[in-house]
Design a protein that fits this description.
single chain; FAD/NAD(P)-binding domain; 2 domains; eight-stranded mixed sheet; 11 helices; about 25% helix; about 30% strand; globular
C-alpha cells in the first residue's frame, strides 16, 4: 500500500533518485535529523526502468568545462567508494583526438593535473601511434595527434549498479515503490504540499525530481518556463526552448568481450575516438562521412559483446510524444538505424584491425533512446518552489553518481560549490559553460 505522507519524496528510481535517497538517509542519520524511513522513492515503472537501465555506463572526467571536471572528479570518488555494489570497473578512459581538438585536450589535461586527477597526455601523431600500439598491436586510426589517458574512471554495469544502489538505500530504511505515476502537484503557498499520483496523493515536506529524459513533463507540471532568455557573451537570445531532444546512438557488436583485451591480456580502458579523417566502409569501400565524427567502445560482459556508441543527433522535435514517454510506445522507435550501425562498425574497423569485416555481428536490439538537453547542453541542478530540488542531468546522468550525494547534503543545509555552476540562473546571467570542438554536444 502506498503511504499517504512522507517527509522526503523522491520521484525517479534511476541513478539520481536512488543515489539521493541513499545519501540523504546517511545524512539524516549522521545529523540526528531522522533516517531512511523518512524517505520514499516512487517511479512510474521500477528501478532502472528508464535511461539509467540502458546506459552505456561510461564513467569519465574528460570534459572541456572546468565545472564538469570538478563535479566528475567528485563522482569518481563516489564510484570508487563501493565498486562491488556499483558494479564499477575502474579500467580508465582514453580520449583520442585529431589536431583540431589538440588545444582543447591539452587544456583538459592541465586542469586535471591542477585538481589532482591522474592522467597521461601524449602529443604528436607518431608518439600517439606508438602509445596506442603499446596497448593494441592492431591500432590503425588515422589523423590522431593526441591521446589523453585518464587512469581513473572506467564503466559500470548499469542494471547491476541500479540494483546495488537500491539495496544500499533499502538497507538504510528507504522505501522504493514502482508503478506509481505522478499526475499532479498540490501547493500550500509557494511550496509543494503534496504529489498526486495514480495511486493516491502523497503529502510531503520536500520533493526531489530526478526523472532523466522525462524532465520536460515535470518541468511543465511544476509550471516552469518552456522558453527562456539566454545571454551568450554580448548576445541575448530570447524565447529559447528550455529542453530539446537528441537521439542517442548506442549498440553492441556480438563478439566475445575478450576480443578487446590489451597486448598483455589485460582489460582495456574505455576507448573514445574523435577524428576528422574521412570514414569509409570496410565492407564495400563507400564513403560514410567526411565530417568530424566520434565513437566510444568497451568490452562488456553484461552486454556480452563490445558495446558503445557514437555522437547523438538532434531530432528537432520537442512535442509531447517525446516529453511524455521517451522510451515507451508514444515515442519514436529507439532501435538505432542502419546508418548508425554502418558508421559505428566501420569506425571500429578504422580504429582496430580486429574489427574488420564484423558488421554482420552487430546485434539488432533496442538501444539508445532520447535525451533531453538544456540550452547549453549541460545539467540544471536547482531548487524550485522552496522545497523541490530538480536534478535535470541534460543526458550526462549515469556517470554522475555523486550528484545525489551533493543534493542530499544541500537538503540538510550544506551548500556545494560543485553544484553552483549548474543553477538555472546561469542562462540569463550569461554564465554558460564553454564549448569544445568535440562532435559530442556535451564534451
Amino acid at each position: 500500500m502506498l503511504a499517504s505522507s512522507t517527509k522526503y519524496l523522491i520521484i525517479g528510481a534511476g541513478i539520481h533518485g536512488l543515489s539521493t535517497s541513499y545519501h540523504l538517509a546517511l545524512e539524516l542519520k549522521k545529523r540526528g535529523l531522522g533516517n531512511g524511513k523518512d524517505i520514499i522513492v516512487i517511479d512510474k515503472s521500477g528501478i532502472g526502468a528508464g535511461a539509467s537501465g540502458i546506459a552505456c555506463g561510461v564513467v569519465r572526467n574528460n570534459y572541456f568545462q572546468p565545472a564538469m571536471r570538478e563535479l566528475m572528479a567528485h563522482s569518481v570518488d563516489v564510484w570508487e567508494s563501493d565498486p562491488k555494489a556499483y558494479s564499477y570497473h575502474p579500467v580508465g578512459y582514453m580520449q583520442i583526438s585529431p589536431e583540431v581538438m589538440h588545444a582543447d585536450i591539452a587544456t583538459i589535461y592541465e586542469q586535471q593535473k591542477a585538481i589532482g586527477y591522474p592522467s597521461e597526455f601524449i602529443e604528436g601523431s607518431a608518439d600517439s601511434m606508438v602509445y596506442m600500439r603499446g596497448l593494441f598491436d592492431d591500432w590503425q586510426a588515422k589523423s590522431i595527434t593526441s591521446v589523453l589517458h585518464e587512469k581513473k574512471g572506467g564503466f559500470s554495469n548499469n542494471m547491476k549498479c541500479m540494483q546495488g544502489l537500491a539495496a544500499k538505500a533499502e538497507s538504510e530504511g528507504v522505501t522504493i515503490t514502482g508503478n506509481v505515476e505522478v499526475t499532479g502537484v498540490e501547493y500550500s503557498g509557494k511550496a509543494i504540499s503534496a504529489i498526486v499520483t495514480n495511486r493516491g496523493t502523497i503529502k510531503t515536506d520536500y520533493v526531489v525530481v530526478g526523472v532523466g529524459p522525462w524532465i520536460n513533463t515535470f518541468w511543465d507540471m511544476l509550471d516552469l518556463p518552456k522558453t527562456i532568455k539566454v545571454k551568450d557573451g554580448d548576445t541575448v537570445h530570447e524565447n529559447v526552448e528550455m529542453w530539446r531532444y537528441y537521439c542517442l546512438q548506442e549498440g553492441t557488436l556480438g563478439v566475445d568481450p575478450n576480443m578487446l583485451k590489451t597486448n598483455d591480456g589485460g582489460s582495456p580502458p574505455v576507448i573514445h575516438v574523435d577524428t576528422d579523417a574521412p570514414l569509409y566502409s570496410d565492407i564495400d569501400g563507400r564513403l560514410i562521412t567526411d565530417k568530424m565524427w566520434g565513437i566510444y567502445y568497451k568490452p562488456d560482459f553484461s552486454f556480452d559483446g563490445v558495446q558503445g556508441g557514437a555522437a547523438p543527433y538532434n531530432v528537432d522535435n520537442t512535442g509531447d510524444d517525446f516529453s511524455i514517454d521517451p522510451y515507451g510506445t508514444e515515442s519514436p522507435d529507439f532501435v538505432v538505424g542502419k546508418d548508425f550501425v554502418d558508421m559505428w562498425c566501420a569506425a571500429l574497423a578504422f580504429c582496430q584491425r580486429r574489427f574488420e569485416d564484423t558488421r554482420h555481428l552487430y546485434r539488432g536490439e533496442p538501444s539508445g533512446g532520447l535525451g533531453a538537453l538544456a540550452p547549453d547542453s549541460f545539467p540544471v541542478f536547482d531548487e524550485y518552489h522552496e522545497n523541490c530540488y530538480v536534478i535535470a542531468d541534460s543526458n550526462h546522468g549515469y556517470k554522475m553518481l555523486g550528484v545525489g550525494k551533493l543534493v542530499a547534503e544541500y537538503i540538510v543545509g550544506e551548500k556545494s560549490k560543485l553544484l553552483d555552476p549548474f543553477s538555472f540562473s546561469r542562462f540569463e546571467e550569461g554564465k554558460l559553460h564553454p564549448v569544445s570542438n568535440s562532435p559530442f554536444p556535451w564534451s
